[in-house]
């Protein structure tokens, strides 16, 4: 199945974990544990890094792949996440 016309643009917006250092194969255990709790609490799939997405897209022979970190633009959303986490359900889930 085709997602975009030839020459078209695909934009992927998703939560990602940090890119791993060259000496790392996986996240630190405490990082993975925290992400697992967030996934369970908010019904999210497993996270991957931006670098992982670039590798996947490259393996599909896509061209002109660009990645951007939008963290500063989504940061205003986090107070709402924290408020939801400070409910009884949020506290018992995380």
Automatic annotation (TrEMBL):
The keyword Transferase applies. Keywords: Methyltransferase, S-adenosyl-L-methionine, Transferase. Belongs to the class I-like SAM-binding methyltransferase superfamily. gTMT family. SUPFAM superfamilies: S-adenosyl-L-methionine-dependent methyltransferases. This is Gamma-tocopherol methyltransferase. Transmembrane segments: none annotated. Residues 3-12 are annotated as: SAM motif III. One of its GO terms (molecular function) is methyltransferase activity. The gene is TMT. InterPro entries: PiNMT-like (IPR025774), SAM-dependent_MTases_sf (IPR029063). PROSITE patterns: SAM_GTMT.
């Amino acid at each position: 199945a085709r997602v975009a016309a030839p020459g078209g643009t695909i934009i992927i917006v998703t939560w990602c974990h940090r890119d791993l250092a060259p000496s790392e194969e996986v996240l630190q255990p405490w990082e993975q544990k925290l992400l697992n709790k967030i996934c369970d609490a908010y019904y999210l799939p497993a996270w991957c890094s931006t670098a992982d997405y670039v590798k996947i897209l490259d393996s599909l022979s896509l061209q002109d792949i660009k990645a951007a970190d939008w963290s500063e633009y989504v940061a205003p959303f986090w107070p709402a996440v924290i408020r939801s986490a400070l409910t009884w359900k949020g506290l018992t889930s995380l």
